[in-house]
Each structure stands twice: as C-alpha cells, then as structure tokens.
Design goal:
- By secondary structure, this protein is α+β, with helices and mostly antiparallel strands.
- The protein has a single domain (about 5-130), classed as 2,3-Dihydroxybiphenyl 1,2-Dioxygenase, domain 1, CATH 3.10.180.
- Helices cover about 20% and strands about 40% of the residues.
- It is built from two helices and eight strands.
- An eight-stranded mixed beta sheet has the order 2-3-4-1-5-8-7-6, covered by helices on one side.
- The model has no long low-confidence stretch (mean pLDDT about 90).
Length: about 140
C-alpha cells in the first residue's frame, strides 16, 4: 500500500450526517466505525463516529470523526492532515520530522484497532495524524 495523505475532519457530534452528505456530493464508498464498535458500547459516545473514510471515484479520500466531549471543538480549525500506509520506516521517519519542535498529543504506538497511530502538532501549528497499518493476523 502506498502512503496516502488526506484531510481528516473533526465534527461536534454530527460526523455521520456530514460524511453521508459528502458521499452524496462526491459519490464513492463510505466506511463508518462507531466508538461502540471499539469497546465503548456503554458510553454516550457508543453511536458516535470514531473513524470514517470516504473514497471517491475521482480518487479523493476524506476522513472524519466525532470529537470526544472533553475535546474542545473549534469551527474553522477542525481538521488534521492524515498520513496512512503500511511502510513502517517511511511513516516513522515522517513522524519524527513532523514532531520535532512541535507537540505530541498521542504518542506513536499501537492502538485498540491494531494499528500504530499518533497525533502531533508541528512547529507551525498544523495537526498531523500518522497511522501505520498493521498486517492482519
């Protein structure tokens, strides 16, 4: 899998509606995963979107999720840039360079969905997400 770079949008509880709207606009295939599907079935987030991905016939990829209640929602600043792929060395190299002089909000480490994932803000204030896809066993 080649490394992919795409926008990752954050929503204030309406990610499902937004991503379904973007599917109507751009067409394509929409994947929706809820927090409940990943072990938070007895929380208020259970039906909210933990991760979504729209892949369009034109080759666009758009990802998004509902933010957790403790995360401050800031319209106009509610996006990150996502780097996704299976080349561990390449993606770790990007991570190391992007996080120098910035701040790490989620360390680059294995997550509950099985991939290695991290979030940082670079020294220019841009938020980045790095997801290293792990081989399915």
């Amino acid at each position: 899998m080649a490394t992919r770079l795409n926008p990752y949008l954050s929503f204030d509880g309406d990610a499902r509606q937004a991503m379904e709207f973007y599917k109507k606009v751009f067409g394509g295939t929409l994947l929706l995963n809820t927090y409940g599907e990943f072990g938070q079935e007895s929380t208020p987030l259970a039906d909210k979107i933990m991760h979504s991905m729209l892949e369009t016939p034109s080759g666009f990829t758009l990802m998004g999720a509902d933010g957790a209640p403790e995360e401050e929602y800031k319209p106009g600043n509610n996006f990150s840039v996502a780097l996704t792929g299976d080349d561990d060395a390449e993606l770790r190299g990007y991570w190391e360079k992007l996080s120098v002089g910035g701040s790490v909000s989620v360390p680059l480490e294995k997550q509950m969905w099985g991939d290695v994932f991290g979030m940082c803000t670079d020294r220019f204030g841009i938020q980045w997400m790095v997801n290293i896809t792990q081989a399915q066993s």
